[in-house]
Amino acid sequence: MRRALGLAGLVALAALAVWAVTGLPSFGHPRGPYATDSVPAMVQERHVSNTVVGITFDLRGIDTLGEELILFSAALGSTLLLRAQRREGRVEEAAQRADEQRTRMPPSLRAAGAYLVGPALMLAVYVIAHGNLTPGGGFQGGVIGAAALLLVYAAGQMVALEHVRPVALVELAEAVGAAAFVLVAIGGMVFATVAMANFLGFGTTGSLLSGGTIPVLNAAVGVEVTGAVTLIITEFLDQALLREARSA
Length: 248
Fold this sequence. Notes:
This protein is 74% helix and 0% strand. By secondary structure, the chain is mostly helical. It has helices spanning 2-22, 33-45, 51-59, 61-83, 90-101, 107-115, 117-129, 138-154, 158-164, 167-192, 214-247. The two termini are 45 Å apart.
């Protein structure tokens, strides 16, 4: 009976999906003035060549602020829940033990993980800084920056990972990034009477500092996402180390 009900539900879901797809507008012809006018508005009014970032931080700036606070809350909640399950000092001891055991890891993997940390961090900075010009931005660059720390783990350097991501500094980076975004939103109310409104010079389209407040928001998002993702990932890594130590 369960199989029959499950199969019937899947068939109905597939039929609804096909119906929804066939009702989509033709490719390249969006409906409504919002989709048609938003792209040229970002180029002409905000002086950004990456219109996706312009829409994210201008037309949908309040939504983006909410998304930032959601990520901030998720990282904070994960950290509080996971840290409550361990005692102080246990992670450092487990990291030292894991570092000694990972000498059996293939040297090629350890070398690749160590040598790619620097280039990954440089790529993260580039993606964040050029978010108003080319595809990318604070979200993407922040994830790349956090992934660079995972390369330290892949290289088998758990003790080094404990040093390159000091918890207090990572938490401060997350808080500063989220606070900077909120302050820019408030600055729009103070200097331009509307939340998230631009109150800086637009610059020249195609230059690194063009777009007014958009490069500032890009940097704030990059810092916040790097801190939040790093906190979440490393907290789970700490839990994995403790489990491995208990099983040993």
